[in-house]
Design brief:
CATH topology: Aminopeptidase
CATH class: Alpha Beta
Strand order of the largest sheet: 1-2-3-4
Distance between the termini: 29 Å
Strand content: 25-35%
Number of strands: 8
Largest sheet: 4 strands, antiparallel
Helix content: 25-40%
Order of helices and strands: EHEEEHEHEEE
Number of domains: 1
Structural class: alpha+beta
CATH architecture: 3-Layer(aba) Sandwich
Radius of gyration: 14 Å
CATH superfamily: Gcn5-related N-acetyltransferase (GNAT)
Shape: globular
């Protein structure tokens, strides 16, 4: 596994295409959810990419405070079917949390998580801070790591 972190403007066309393709593969096709993925937040974010044998297998974006929430946030966390269950998602989040601390200091980190992943995010130290709400037809909750 090869991990790479880049600010949006440093992404190559190939990297950006791979990020958007993986997000579309999982969020739109696999989860059968029609939504506007490109939301004008990527341009302000750092992007974590996990490459394996030339394929992007996991990615997340690190969003500064004031873009999605008042606090900095981690979003668009996604891994391909090929690596689910092998710890890649957990490693992705640990890298994301470490990088958030480097970028923004020891501040709260907020996420909007799909509700079925509550246990996963809780295991990393996030706490539920909202009731369940629907976003694009999928149950979500807000969570914070203090």
């Amino acid at each position: 596994m090869n991990w790479v972190i880049k600010k949006f403007d440093a992404l190559t066309a190939k990297e950006l295409y791979a990020i958007l393709q993986l997000r579309s593969e999982v969020f739109v096709v696999e989860q059968n959810c029609i939504f506007q993925d490109m939301d004008n937040k990527d341009q302000y974010s750092h992007h974590i990419m996990c490459w394996h044998e030339g394929q992007l297998v996991a990615t997340a974006r690190l969003v500064p405070a004031g873009i999605s929430y008042k606090a900095p946030s981690i979003g668009r966390v996604v891994s391909s079917k090929a690596v689910r269950g092998n710890g890649t998602g957990q490693e992705l989040m640990k890298i994301a949390i470490d990088e958030m601390r480097k970028l923004y200091g020891n501040t709260a980190i907020k996420i909007g998580a799909q509700f079925y992943l509550k246990k996963f995010y809780s295991s990393l130290g996030f706490e539920q801070t909202s009731e369940i709400y629907l976003e694009d037809g999928i149950e979500h909750i807000e969570m914070v790591m203090r």
